[in-house]
């Protein structure tokens, strides 16, 4: 029995790979890993793309996602001016907007308009207390290498601001407001210009797109009666 | 074939070691309910929900615009936490600011 058991025992053991083979295999694995690290992991995680492969594969978009308005505009040429000397002619309607928000302590919000390059907007905003503020624009879609995706126009603590903006590029342009203190702050912005929509983005990542009203939706207030000495 | 398979598995395992960092920023405002060397739980002021966050050793702690340390974090403190992650269930703390109690929204 024992002899029979010995002749029909365990199968021949597989020879362990030599150290040379192990080193070769490890080197090959490390090389593959290094290639994947440079072409895929670094672009996706840190937007570092020395080879350009990450950008072609769309991986750099993961590390630095482009902020997009939830409802993109249809054909935008109507919102871009046709410049004739000092005059800019717009095929589209002139619109206006009023927006108000109450920021809880330490909360922040972004409120921005979609503007075509060269389009003009007038604005005025006021807060019940000073807020951390960043007036900036972000490109719509991909940008060329070396071009920043966002550009800051004004960044300082403010309680109000009024002015005009001529969009240097097509994108979403507006404000980041942050409540720096322990009490709620009310912010109200009014604006007018050649845009179709705005978007508000809260610190909890909720966003809401607003469709704006044309200027002819404003109703004329009745004129006050003429005074007797006015003739 | 077996060697190629081993090579592929080794390569994939090395690559997978790279941390899968998320890229969305979140702000959690509320009161600390629990703190340990690696975990921070904050009860949000706005809805009372408790958010559990991983806390690496590299976080920045601020109090009154002065840099502090993780030892300053205690249950009951009001904080503003800036974290990154894919969603509220998967957050990693970046900065913790210790702040006075906030007044509620009117």
Explained architecture:
The complex is a heterodimer of chains A (231) and B (106). By secondary structure, chain A is α+β, with helices and mostly antiparallel strands. Chain A folds into 2 domains: 19-61, no CATH class; 77-217, Jelly Rolls (Sandwich). Chain A has helices at residues 2-7, 19-46, 53-56, 60-63, and strands at residues 82-84, 87-89, 95-103, 108-115, 120-139, 150-155, 158-166, 171-178, 185-193, 197-202, 207-211, 213-214. In chain A, the strands form 2 sheets. In chain A, strands 3, 4, 5, 6, 7, 8, 9, 10, 11 and 12 form a 10-stranded antiparallel β-sheet that branches. Chain A has a two-stranded antiparallel sheet with strand order 1-2. The longest helix of chain A has 28 residues, at 19-46. In chain A, 26% of the residues are buried. Mean pLDDT of chain A is 81; it is low at 1-6 and 67-75. Chain B has one domain (22-98): Nucleic acid-binding proteins (OB fold (Dihydrolipoamide Acetyltransferase, E2P), Beta Barrel), CATH 2.40.50. Chain B is 14% helix and 42% strand. Chain B contains 1 helix and 7 strands; from the N terminus they run αβββββββ. Chain B has one helix at residues 2-16, and strands at residues 24-35, 39-44, 50-54, 60-63, 66-67, 78-85, 91-98. Chain B has a 5-stranded mixed barrel with strand order 1-2-3-7-6. In chain B, strand 4 and strand 5 form a beta hairpin. The longest helix of chain B is centred in the first third of the chain and has 15 residues, at 2-16. Chain B is elongated. Chain B starts with a helix and ends in an 8-residue tail after the last strand. The model of chain B is unreliable at 18-22 (pLDDT under 50). The interface between A and B is medium-sized, with 29 and 29 residues.
